[in-house]
Amino acid sequence: MRLRGAEALRKAAPQGILIVVFDFCVFVVAKDFGAKVGYAFALIHPEKVAGIVSLGAPFVHPNAPFKLAFPEGFYIRRWQEPGRAEADFGRFDAKTAVRNVYIMFSRSEIPIASENQEIMDLVDPSAPLPSWFTEEDLSVYGDLYHKSGFQTPLQVPYRSLGEKLEFSKHDLDDAKIEAPTLVIMGEEDYSFKFPGMEQYVKSGAVKKYVPNLEIIYLPEGCHFVHEQFPDQINQFLLNFLNCNKY
């Protein structure tokens, strides 16, 4: 998506990538797995990137001093298995499946199921929605997924994660992201509990690979900071664009 100025911010998708054009360079605004693509673009085409904003996903270089490893019940591993997530989600209508996802991923715990448990079973049917996510929101999302199904979001990103970015083709094994970069993270985001992640980010080790990095932490923020605090996030984005657009 290519849009200009503040209007772009109002049309940003909940997840993915937004490219805001100022003159001949772009600002890349990405959420979650979309940040992986945004960071890769900045590494391969640094001359085209005026700045990067990532919501909830710091840059993890292939040479970073830690590797992410998770048990079999980790939600990503489960959803990568063909047919398993489809069977799990298929026990519920689309609205209930979306409800469970929002409740589960707004928590600070990593979603990990036991051996005889499915990921959707991690949510108690009586658990309330997050206070910032309304029944009206749920109805809109539920209707959309009822029409589209969940196959595409399961394929991209979860089942395409094995498609590694070939940095070696571009001689980028030791490259850095030099563009101004802003990462906005909720302190309650479950991804902070990924092995080694909090230390990597809060110790400043990430700046070895992204030297021009600013990180904003939202103390009450969860994985969905852009939906939880939309006005604050929009203001952070506008400030960043205005400070780096020339």
Short characterization:
This protein is of the alpha/beta class and 246 residues long.
Written account of the structure:
With 246 residues, the protein is an alpha/beta fold. 35% of the residues lie in helices and 14% in strands. Strands 1-2-3-4-5-6 form a six-stranded mixed sheet, with helices on both faces. Helix 5 crosses helix 6. The longest helix is centred in the C-terminal third of the chain and has 15 residues, at 230-244. The chain starts with a strand and ends with a helix.
> End-to-end distance, in Å?
21 Å
Structural class: alpha/beta
Mean pLDDT across residues: 88
Q: Give the number of DSSP strands.
A: 6
Q: Which regions have little confidence, pLDDT < 50, spanning 5+ residues?
A: 1-15
- Give the SSE string: EHEEHEHHHHHEHEHH
- Strand content is 5-15%
Shape: globular
Layout of secondary structure:
Elements: E1 2-3, H1 5-10, E2 16-22, E3 25-31, H2 34-44, E4 49-55, H3 75-80, H4 84-89, H5 94-105, H6 135-148, H7 151-155, E5 181-186, H8 197-202, E6 213-218, H9 225-228, H10 230-244
Parallel strand pairs: 1-2, 3-4, 4-5, 5-6
Antiparallel strand pairs: 2-3
